[in-house]
Amino acid sequence: MNGLLFITHCTDRYTYLQSAEIALKGGCKNIQLRMKDSPVAEVEQTAIKTKELCDAYGAQLYIDDHVQVCLNVKATGVHLGKLDMPPAEARKILGNNFVIGGTANTFEDIRHLVSQGVDYIGLGPFRFTTTKKNLSPVLGLSGYQEIIAQCRLHSIDIPILAIGGITLNDIPVLMRTGIAGIALSSTILQADDPIMETNRILTFI
Question: Is 6 helix (H, G, I), strand (E, B) or coil?
Fold first, then answer.
């Protein structure tokens, strides 16, 4: 996992599916379907349609939280938050043909997730964001620099994506910390031209 990961969001302007299509039209090749407060049946129905879109654009689909939905729709993988199913348990269900990502806020979180066998890590938040409830402590640029340095010191080499309130102007300096990519939602969807904004973002990653 590297580059740009777009996380779907439902707004006054766009549905989850429409938000995914915007990112795909802008050139994004990694989509995470995140529908936190939706019933599982609705998540799966939307996942089926999003998978069709991703296939049409040659993109990868990741499902937030729902391991069984990931399996049912044959998504590329699943992303598990701190309060979701443990990655090792998800691996027993999914096997080795699916990608499993995990959420981290500290270096200790990363060590734990690596021991659980995740394939990539979403590390954040970079700054305050309204798209996520129960926000972990904000890391800021210095937090990423410190955690990436600790990973190198302990020979932990796993793709790490920065997430949480990131804007276009933040991306160049964040990429210089050694992260593998950026996860975004609001920055794209709140732009005047979200498709063009996605395209612009990709030039920095």
Answer: strand
| Burial call 161-180: b when 16+ CB within 10 Å, e when fewer | bbbbbbebebbeebeebebb
Q: Class for domain 3-202, per CATH?
A: alpha beta
Is the backbone peptide bond immediately before 39 cis, with ω within 30 degrees of 0? no
Residue 144 burial (C-beta neighbours within 10 Å; 0-12, 13-18, 19+): buried
Q: Considering only CA atoms, which of 181, 192, 149 is closest in space to residue 22?
A: 192
What average pLDDT values come out for the chain (205 residues) when binned by 10 residues? Answer: 95 96 98 96 98 98 98 98 94 97 97 97 89 76 97 97 95 97 96 97 95
Q: Is 164 within 8 Å of 174 (Cβ atoms)? A: no
pLDDT score at 1: 85
Domain residue ranges in the chain = 3-202
Answer yes or no: pTM beyond 0.90. yes
Dist CA 91 CA 6 (whole Å): 23
- What residue type is 79 in one-letter code? H
Largest CA-CA distance found in the chain, in angstroms, rounded: 45
